[in-house]
């Protein structure tokens, strides 16, 4: 028998189905809800086993969050309407991250509003989501929403407003638009509209049956959202304590090999371990560190030498130059390129300082450290290079998610007062463009006899 086929040289592989169910249940009992959801996506055998024992496994995983100040994760609501309301989808919705509903950037944070299923990546985006000018949420201060056909089955958000002295009811704008489109597609089959909004084709009779089921499920969803809001308040407090303990453990482990903890926590593997264990409210143990020790040391040396970009790069981190073996701080790399590599373009750097994003150097001024934005570049050429044309801007441009597009820039009615408003007008409307806005509002409203006044920046209200 050849060495390649000998039993000693052939790696032994144990099939997942060959293991005893008791052993598998014991192993999966140490998993968190998001771990179970991730394991279900690994293979069909694992998904079938977890789905068969989902009630026991997920209930045990949700009780694992009862650590310190935190309480067990609320159970999944029982929903009868059509859709993916499984235990894995519930865990992925809470811990799986997604895109920010304001700026569309990826984020791993928990939802900021469970009733409306909103997720934000920062405090600024959270404020923008609740800002009336961004139109993410349609708010009502009276009972006008009750006349809408979707008001009794769409998820809503209710809060007491001190400014208005009463409760405010908010609906997600995209949910309202989807409900209107769904009703329109049920009355007339529009294939293009169905594909655009990813709506299941239904006739009017089937849609009415589905809406009746949604009405019965709405109180269950609202109750679950309130439980999640109360749970998240204590969960974040305990997560901060657990994260501090894990960072202290990383600092002690780094002291053994004379490694800086500030560099260790920005190694990709350590950052993933810290995020996963802190998310599940579990402390990093010595066996876990020993299992990943060699890869952590390799990443630490790579980050220190500049060959590996750390998890969170700052302007004070040293990185290696693309055209020479020297290392410089991120904030000083463009200066080095201008001085040491005059034949290279500093705008071609892969990793740029934070203040350089969206700026370029003037090709007509060799040896200059200054970088200009698109508007500044045109002004610079007009003042210093009037005979030359400014270079074209080849950088990728992204549309800001806050201002509306040309197609959606419309004058509408204020949902809180019923008055005509121009929510997207600029601050200049208070001075030079006020008359133009008044004329535009008159054309939209169709009442040329009503008068107007400017109350807040860019907002027009009718005066009876």
Description of the molecule:
It is built from 16 helices and 13 strands. The chain is globular and about 70 Å long. By secondary structure, the chain is mainly alpha-helical. A hairpin with a 2-residue loop joins strand 12 and strand 13. Among the domains are: 67 residues, no CATH class; 52 residues, no CATH class. The N terminus and C terminus are likely disordered. The chain is 42% helix and 10% strand. A three-stranded antiparallel sheet has the order 3-5-4. It has a two-stranded antiparallel ribbon with strand order 1-2. A two-stranded antiparallel ribbon has the order 6-7.
Residue windows where pLDDT falls under 50 for at least 5 positions: 1-12, 401-434, 441-464
Largest sheet: 3 strands, antiparallel
What is the H-and-E element order?
Answer: HHHHHEEHEEEHHHHHHHEEHEEHEEHEE
Mean pLDDT across the residues is: 77
How much of the sequence lies in strands comes to 5-15%
Rounded Rg: 29 Å
The helix content, as a percent range, equals 40-55%
Q: Report, as a whole number of angstroms, the end-to-end distance.
A: 99 Å
Number of strands: 13
Strand order of the largest sheet: 3-5-4
> What structural category arises from helix and sheet content?
mainly alpha
Overall, the morphology is globular
> So how many helices?
16
């Amino acid at each position: 028998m050849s060495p390649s086929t000998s039993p000693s040289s052939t790696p032994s592989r144990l099939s997942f189905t060959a293991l005893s169910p008791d052993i598998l249940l014991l192993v999966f009992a140490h998993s968190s809800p998001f771990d179970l959801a991730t394991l279900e996506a690994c293979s069909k055998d694992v998904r079938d086993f977890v789905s068969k024992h989902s009630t026991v496994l997920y209930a045990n995983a949700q009780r694992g969050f009862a650590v310190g100040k935190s309480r067990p994760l609320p159970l999944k609501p029982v929903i009868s309407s059509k859709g993916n309301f499984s235990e894995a989808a519930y865990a992925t919705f809470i811990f799986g991250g997604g895109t920010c509903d304001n700026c569309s950037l990826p984020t791993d944070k928990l939802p900021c509003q469970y009733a409306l299923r909103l997720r934000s990546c920062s405090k600024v985006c959270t404020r923008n989501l609740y800002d009336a000018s961004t139109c993410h949420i349609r708010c009502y201060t009276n009972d006008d929403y009750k006349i809408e056909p979707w008001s009794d089955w769409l998820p809503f958000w209710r809060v007491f407003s001190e400014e208005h002295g009463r409760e405010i009811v908010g609906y997600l704008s995209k949910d309202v638009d989807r409900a209107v489109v769904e009703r329109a597609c049920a009355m007339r089959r529009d294939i293009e509209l169905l594909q655009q909004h990813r709506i299941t084709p239904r006739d009017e009779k089937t849609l009415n049956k589905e809406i009746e089921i949604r009405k019965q499920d709405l109180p269950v969803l609202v109750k679950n959202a309130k439980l999640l809001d109360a749970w998240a308040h204590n969960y974040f407090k305990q997560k901060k304590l657990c994260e501090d303990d894990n960072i202290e453990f990383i600092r002690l482990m780094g002291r053994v090999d004379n490694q800086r903890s500030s560099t260790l926590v920005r190694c990709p593997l350590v950052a993933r371990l810290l995020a996963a264990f802190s998310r599940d409210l579990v402390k990093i143990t010595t066996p876990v560190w020993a299992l990943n020790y060699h890869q952590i040391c390799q990443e630490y040396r790579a980050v220190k030498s500049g060959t590996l970009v750390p998890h969170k790069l700052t302007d004070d981190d040293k990185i290696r130059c693309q055209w020479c073996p020297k290392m410089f701080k991120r904030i000083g790399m463009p200066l080095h390129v201008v001085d040491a590599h005059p034949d290279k373009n500093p705008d071609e750097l892969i990793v740029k300082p934070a203040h350089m994003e969206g700026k370029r150097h003037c090709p007509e001024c060799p040896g200059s450290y200054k970088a200009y934005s698109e508007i500044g570049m045109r002004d610079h050429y007009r003042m210093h290079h009037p005979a030359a044309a400014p270079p074209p801007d080849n950088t990728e441009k992204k549309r800001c998610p806050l201002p509306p597009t040309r197609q959606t820039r419309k004058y509408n009615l204020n949902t809180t007062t019923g008055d005509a408003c121009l929510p997207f007008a600029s601050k200049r409307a208070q001075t030079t463009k006020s008359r133009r806005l008044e004329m535009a509002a008159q054309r939209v409203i169709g009442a040329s006899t009503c008068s107007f006044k400017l109350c807040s920046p860019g907002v027009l209200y009718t005066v009876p």
